[in-house]
Design goal:
The chain contains 5 helices and 6 strands. By secondary structure, it is an alpha+beta fold. Strand 3 and strand 4 form a beta hairpin. Helix 2 packs across helix 3 and helix 3 packs antiparallel against helix 4. Bound molecules: zinc ion (ZN).
Length: 177
């Protein structure tokens, strides 16, 4: 898994994939997108954001049970989600470790070249792949068949559209209403 760049430290400046840069103090926890000088909006994610920002809690629970996070990073969470995104799109994600910086309230921050809606779709696609992988290793052909049937009807952009409409994303922890 890709490691965030260290050291960041106090008042770090984050180099964005588009060539612009942003001061970490300009990124607050309630932010989902950063309106960049390049004219694009870039998705902003922090380690304090729960993975349920992207997928429902029950799916997060399934992922926690099935995805092996055999390292010191703890149970499956936003850090793992963004690690997978960085593996898929290495040139399109900037990240910074700011745990030394007491002022910001988060330890890790990621800013992607694409906007938060596109990031949401990317995350859901990757989560589906993770689950497919987990199911295929479960040695249960019924489960695999059920999963594949369920996925035939699964429309990622539609899911994302609905999820974003139904959930409140305004707060730093954006839990279900
Ligand atoms: Zn930009």
């Amino acid at each position: 898994m890709a490691e965030p760049r260290v050291p960041g430290g106090r008042g770090a400046e984050l180099e964005l994939p588009c060539g612009e840069s942003v001061h970490v103090h300009d990124l607050d926890m309630g932010m989902r997108e950063y309106d960049c000088d390049c004219g694009d909006a870039h998705a902003v994610v922090m380690d304090v954001h729960p993975p349920s920002r992207f997928v429902p809690e029950f799916l997060v629970d399934v992922l926690r049970e099935t995805v092996d996070t055999a390292d010191e990073t703890g149970e499956f969470g936003t850090m793992h989600v963004m690690g997978v995104v960085m593996e898929e799109f290495p040139g399109e994600v900037a990240s910074e470790n700011v745990e030394e910086d007491q002022d910001v309230g988060y330890s890790l921050v990621w800013v992607t070249d694409f906007d938060s809606r596109r990031l949401h779709e990317v995350v859901v696609e990757l989560v589906v792949e993770l689950m497919e992988h987990a199911v295929s290793h479960a040695d249960d052909s019924d489960a695999m068949t059920q999963f594949e049937e369920a996925m035939l009807d699964f429309d990622v952009p539609e899911f994302v559209e609905q999820y974003r409409r139904e959930r409140d994303f305004s707060g730093p922890h954006d839990t279900a209403r």
